[in-house]
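Progress against Task 2.4 (sequence-to-structure conversion) is shown through the following example record, which the project officer requested during the mid-term review.
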Amino acid sequence: MKKLYFIFVLLLSSTLLLGSTFNIKAANKNTISTAKTASSLNANKETQVKLSFPGKEDKLGSDIVFVLDKSGMSAQNDIYTQAKVFLKNIKNQAKDKNLDVKIGVVLFNSIGNIKQKLTNISTDKGYKDILKALNSSVSMGTNMHAGLLAAQKMLEDDKTVADSRKHMILISDGATYLYSKNKDYTKAYTRSFGNPKNQINPKTGKHYSNGSDKKGGIWEYQSRDYNTESTAPKFYNANTAEKLKAYLNEKRIHDKDFQKYEYEYNFASAYLNIGRKVMPISSDAVANIEAGFIYAWDTYKQIDSKYNTYVYYKNAADFDGSEFLKLLKGGELDTSFTELENKVTTMISKGSRVEDFIGRHFDFINDLNKIQIKSGSSVLDKERISNYRYGFGKRSDNTYRYELIYTPGDNEKIELKVNESVKADNLLELTYFEKLTVIPEKPGEYTFKTNEKAILYPIDSNKKPGKALVFPIPQVTYTVKKIEIKETEKKIKEKHKIKPEKKEVKPQTGDHTAIFAMIILVIGSVIGMIVLIRKKSK
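Structure tokens generated for the chain above:
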């Protein structure tokens, strides 16, 4: 018997797949990491959403490079004392709070000297090595440009820390008269007018009368300023940051014309007069100190555009370069390390907030029992403030460490207000539930975003807004599956206990066989009777 197949089509509308889990990892590590996940839908078509920051993988990393002039921190100066206290605090907090802080040290004399490469301060050995480097000293020449170039390279070479968490600290008296070329901080260059009395004034035809050979040192500008017209711009008159800015920008125009007179500054050129060149005196001439200022200024601006910079003034020796330092800083100089310490140890502070817009296929479940905030490993106590506002971690003054505000409607969202500092070692996690409101019926696979967008607006410990950070958007998959099941006739009958029917043979239309047989039988009987009667009559 042929086998018959019956097809049963079942629409299964409760086949659910796990929601995708996302975790942002920046190309450069140690930015504020944001994470967001969504669970699979449960029988009530609800998904549990978890939003956290800093990310679980975060280890708060920072690079700090000190750039010091040749005396290092050996002097008993107030700024140096503060710097050492700062380092001690950072060292202690690095151990306690899972901070990954590396310190580098550059001292500049005629060149940039890397006295300590970036070293983790949390270890006792690292801390001692850093202090030793800071207390060291070098001699001969002053080339701030080289020191800045060395620091710039040190920061650039560390790819494990985000640029936003890199810091450069310049501590100097502002005096610099040498510079480097092609970013090579291991060589120094200068310019010299030689002995002005050996040069002839083209306007008078006589030798200049003022000055002496400054040997490419810091006072070279005097050989020009004291031998040119009183109406010509003078370096010594550029005695404020604003005046110095205008003066240097004017000199910048002529710098190329005088680069041919530069020569390498070293022991031989400085003390043996070997390899020196003499630059002609003119009011347009760009002296070594002016070139040194211009190149250091340009490099500082490059560093400042990418990293965090701090400029401290140490006591002047024979030259007061504080106005040049103010020019670099663009205003008042730094006087304490509090701001830097806060930046290094804190990621997110009071005033930060998260805006989370619910996905258009979902509704936020506005039930306090389904909302939770964890700070580190502790679940915070919670209470309802109003229908759409909840407080978490109530303080003794009746304020809350965190608040959640729900806004229903077309632009449905929740807002998390942060009312305390969030340390790197203290993961903050918000958990809530959403319900899927659009239920497909046709077979197929459907993917829904649990959120339209979620953004963290951080405020740092110095009350400055940081770059807005976007959370990933989790998705859940809802599947309506078409499943085919095939069964044989025999199996179906056995399954449903169907008894086989008895067979009956019924005459078919047009079948006359029985009638012909009856007629023949009748005719035969008649003939038999006739024959019998004839025999009896005889």
